[in-house]
Write a structure and sequence with these properties.
Shape: globular
Distance between the termini: 55 Å
Number of strands: 14
Helix content: 10-25%
Structural class: alpha+beta
Number of domains: 1
Number of helices: 4
Strand order of the largest sheet: 1-2-3-5-6-8-9-10-11-12-13-14
Amino acid sequence: MITLFFQIKQAIEEKIIILAILVVRLFAKIPLRLVTSPLLGLLILSALSLPVMAQGGPPFITNDPGTPGDGNWEINVMTYAERHPTERIFNPGVLDLNYGLGPRIQLTYEVPYLIVGTDGGPTRTGLGKSLPGVKWRFYDSDKKRLSFSIFPQLEFNNPTHSLQRGLVDYGTRFYLPIEASKQIGPLQVNPEVGYIFANHTGAAWFSGLVVLREVNKRMELAGELYNLANTDGSNHWDTWDAGGRYTLGEHFILLVMAGRSLTRPSLSQPDFFGYAGMQFLFSMKHKKDKTAETNP
């Protein structure tokens, strides 16, 4: 069964890479050798003449100030794959729940299921860490087309055997990032910077930048640069990726993203990582309001 999971994972990796390259190449109309360049990938997206009002967030690592809206649910169900020279990580299910509390606040809970394999070692499976949080967009200017938010999150272990199996690290971590979103002409720019407080090892600085464009009313494309560096020098993550979203219907959005390290792959630098999943959008508040209108 575990072997089957990794066969599926490898197939997903290959399909995501091919899809990301073909999508960017299709709309940019440039040679393949340029599409595979990480820095030029961002320039490609910036050069497209497309509509505006794209947003960051899933499937990208970097968050943005956007929230679902009062009474709205945004549920992301994704598959994640990550490959290193001697280690392979596969999350067959990543659940990301988001609820809008008022127009500027978002309540979040995220948890993955992990499958980790190493060369010459056993394959381990189990539940990952829980990551609840609250996002608050404290500044929002339509005139300046600029917004800011903070997104504190608390990461902790679940009452499972994942720690004993070596799937997760010991201890609790507190994330404190600040996000921004700025509309520059037809370009949406979403930077994020933050610090991870840890009661054990794992304290780190992180930063990300997402550049987005809308292709049409259904499709969005984006490029991302991301960096994470532990304060003790034990881990350093420098990556680029490209991906997008495609609206299938009023409540369903397809998510896809693929990337790799900007430097030589190592234990902390992936030679591949990618997301593929679905975003579900629902509004319980509007449903209740409609019921009240029809039942006076």
